[in-house]
Amino acid sequence: MLASAFLAVLAAIERARQPPPDGMIPLTSSEIHHLLNVLPGPAPAPAHSHRLRWSAWRRRHQHRARTSHYQKRTRT
């Protein structure tokens, strides 16, 4: 429970400190959890850059899906 609270606070601080770029959702606590699990490992730098690119792609995709969903709901 403490870890969940820590991730929620970390996500709130990140949202307040740096708004997400256009076309991306803000970092969520589950995304921060995933990045904290995979990035500190002893993997080579290309693996870390791949993880960060994947995270950015995922956030852009979620933004497009959310926008499409809200547009569809307003048409009906």
Care to describe what's here?
This protein is mainly alpha-helical and 76 residues long. The protein has helices at residues 2-17, 29-38, 45-75. Helix 1 (2-17) packs across helix 2. The protein starts with a helix and ends with a helix.
The parts where pLDDT drops under 50 for at least 5 residues are none
Shape, please? globular
Number of helices: 3
How would a textbook summarize the main sheet?
none
Order of helices and strands, N to C? HHH
Spatial gap, N to C terminus: 40 Å
Q: Structural class from helices and strands?
A: mainly alpha
Summed over residues and divided by their number, the pLDDT gives a mean of: 83
- Summarize the amount of helix as a percent range: over 70%
Rg calc:
15 Å
Strand coverage percent: under 5%
